[in-house]
Amino acid sequence: MKQLEIFKALSNKTRLEILLWLKDPAASFPEQVHAGFEVGVCVGEIQKKAGLTQSTVSEYLSILQRAGLVSSTRVGQWTYYKRNEETFVELSKIIESDI
Amino acid sequence: MKQLEIFKALSNKTRLEILLWLKDPAASFPEQVHAGFEVGVCVGEIQKKAGLTQSTVSEYLSILQRAGLVSSTRVGQWTYYKRNEETFVELSKIIESDI
DNA sequence: GAGTTATATCGGGAAAAACCGATATAATCA
DNA sequence: TGATTATATCGGTTTTTCCCGATATAACTC
User: Fold this and answer.
1) In sequence order, what are the beta bridge partners of B74?
2) pLDDT at A31 exceeding the cut of 80
């Protein structure tokens, strides 16, 4: 686990918000109709809510993914992102003991 | 607690190292003779070990302090910095539940 | 096939962070 | 008092991050 990369990923207001939204997708993205939330939330919905351009949000999601904080699943023309909870648990332990 | 400020403070290799060194000052700073380690470690010792300029290290320590990760005590002409463990505990909890 | 929709990537301008050297401040000591 | 030592702050250059518009890719639809 690359702590520095994780902390950099968490050092942005919008990226922190995205992670929070993904914690409760049903509440945060009432408009998503294409799929259940098991696979996550598609980029377009996240982008609308973030209020930034599509390219920026796509970039942010890939930063979060490289840090291991989210994972993605492609379904047809959509890419769904969801939290990777194991990384959060690991991170919490790392802060308790390794930092 | 301002999460964003904390994550930014943790988004730098040298600052992460400083925090690690301050975890075991006796092992990390064998040369410090001016005081016991209860008050912390003085800027000069940290600077030598970091290998950056005095101004940079002083700046880094104040970033860590603004984030609540360390605290400082002035004794004579020295400023001693030590970890603020409560913030780490809080942060770990925040990651478990609030992020 | 061509047209449409969703996402990723690329190139770049603006803002922030990473450092530095020089200088200021504060404490000590002769 | 002046000289010395430790730290903080200030001004500036380089590097990184932020965020955009334009373009590329991939899947779907007709």
Assistant:
1) B79
2) no
Query: Residue B56: phi, psi to the nearest 5?
Result: -65, -45
- A45, A29 contact by CB (below 8 A): yes
Handedness of CA B18, B22, B28, B34 (dihedral sign): positive
Residue in B54, B61, B49 with CA at minimum distance from that of residue B12: B61
Chain B, residues 38-97, CB within 8 A of chain A, namely 88-89, 91-93, 95-96
Query: pLDDT band at B14, cuts 50/70/90?
Result: very high
Task: Give the tokens for residue A31.
Answer: 């408009």
**E strand or H helix at B81:** strand B78-83
Residue A52: partners with Cβ closer than 8 Å, 6 or more residues away:
A14, A60
Which residues have CB under 8 Å from B98's CB, separation 6+? Answer: B3
CA dihedral of residues B79, B52, B69, B19 (deg, nearest 10): -110
Once rounded to an integer, what is the mean pLDDT over residues B59-63?
98
Q: What is the pLDDT of residue B30?
A: 82
Residues in A touching B91 (Cβ below 8 Å) = 95
Kindly tell me the burial class for residue B2, based on how many C-beta atoms sit within 10 Å of its own C-beta (0-12, 13-18, 19 or more).
Answer: exposed
- SS in 3 state form for A26-48? HHHCCCCCCCCCCCCEEHHHHHH
